[in-house]
Amino acid sequence: MIAAQLTARFPNGMSSLAILLHVEQQTGSYAAAGLVLAATSVGQAVAGPLTSRWMGAWGMRRVLTLTLSVCVIAVLGLALLPLTLPGYMVLGCVAGLSTPPIQAAVRTIYPKLVNSSQLTPLFSLDASLQEIIWILAPVLITLVSTQIGTVEGLLLVAIILVAGGAWFILSPEVGRVRIPRSRNALGKVVLKPPVLLATVIGFLLIGACAAVEVGVVASFEHGSLAAGLVLAVFSVGSLAGGLAFGHIPIGPWAMARRLVIVTVGLALTMVMLNAYWLGGTLVLAGIGIAPALAVLFAITSASVKFSETAEAFGWAGTGQLIGAAAGSAVAGFLVDVGDWRGAYLAATVFAGVGLIVSIVFVRAFPDLRGRDASPTPDTEPLAVTPS
């Protein structure tokens, strides 16, 4: 299941960079590329809670198959059609709206695959191993897009979407796990303090990562493989941090400690434009990212009923995607009006605000030390017939 979902989500690590490189090459503007990325991310953000909730009503396989089909068509359109900026934004939004909710599906399945004591370590392992996507995907898509062509880069994204999505959809676990239909109104679950915190901090953390992506591409220009390598190093730091610290019990201050590392590392990126310096500072920042994501997954799962899990992760994903949109757009504009430092400044501010939020609202974080992170089972009244 881990291998299937990592493959299905591999295009997530390629699509933003592929679109950024393609639109920048076609329009000559990082701001235009940032707007298209923003449109894509906003589409994903709007669809996240809806498609996740639909899985409880229609079944995971039906929703995943439908969204995958539309998403592939939209990516092919971005690659092959002669478009102006509004056209790129429309197709980017369609691709975002139809992004298969793989992450919400797999994190709903996880509690059914392992016992309660293994769930938090599994979330940590998942958060760490997903960095493989961010290590390999940027290098691969940068190599293809810069050495072969940006059209070919987007076509590669479409091919992996089909292959990985089919593997995940056909996995036996996807057919066996049935998500109960949620009894609450859409959006009610996000009002729970841990879910709301996970959504807000996810917005800020992924916003910082998206700004870093734009900054790295702008630092080394369109044709440099160094951009992909530096982004890969960023993810190596996150992978190392997740594997090294994933076993640490999650208390109320866990998020703040992890975000201190991220904020300090990102602040140091602005000192100088040098591949080795950027690589080192981004490794430092990356050490806190996977452990922070593991905290987000665990507090979300532990605070909801099983029928609400997919929607809760959908909202958390929406927060992250809106953050990606904001981070990309802000960083793109700052690069256009200034230089590469603007993108890293944006990243540092996003992470710093996340740190402040995690400190101010520390009492809202559940203490999971020695506690089960599984969602609460759904219960309902039983009708008893008098004998």
What report would you give on this structure?
The radius of gyration is 20 Å and the shape is globular. It has one domain: Up-down Bundle (Growth Hormone, Chain: A), CATH 1.20.1250.20. Helix 1 runs antiparallel to helix 9, helix 3 packs parallel to helix 5 and helix 4 packs antiparallel against helix 9. With 387 residues, it is an all-alpha fold. Helices cover 76% and strands 0% of the residues. Pfam families: MFS_1. GO terms for molecular function: transmembrane transporter activity. Keywords: Membrane, Transmembrane, Transmembrane helix. This is Major Facilitator Superfamily protein.
Could you outline the blueprint of secondary structure elements for this entry?
Layout lengths: L1 H8 L2 H16 L2 H29 L1 H21 L4 H13 L4 H12 L2 H14 L1 H17 L2 H20 L2 H5 L16 H28 L5 H20 L8 H15 L6 H12 L2 H14 L3 H32 L3 H20 L27
Helix pairs in contact: 1-9, 2-3, 2-8, 2-9, 3-4, 3-5, 3-16, 4-5, 4-9, 6-16, 7-12, 7-15, 8-9, 8-12, 11-12, 11-15, 11-16, 11-17, 12-14, 12-15, 13-14, 13-15, 13-17, 15-16, 16-17
Short overview:
By secondary structure, the chain is mainly alpha-helical. It contains 17 helices and no strands. Helices cover 76% and strands 0% of the residues.
Which descriptor suits the 3D outline? Answer: globular
What is the level-2 CATH architecture name?
Answer: Up-down Bundle
Mean pLDDT, all residues = 83
How many β strands by DSSP? 0
Radius of gyration: 20 Å
> Structural class, please?
mainly alpha
Give the DSSP E fraction (strand runs of 2 or more residues).
under 5%
Distance between the termini: 47 Å
Q: Under the CATH scheme, which class?
A: Mainly Alpha
Number of helices: 17
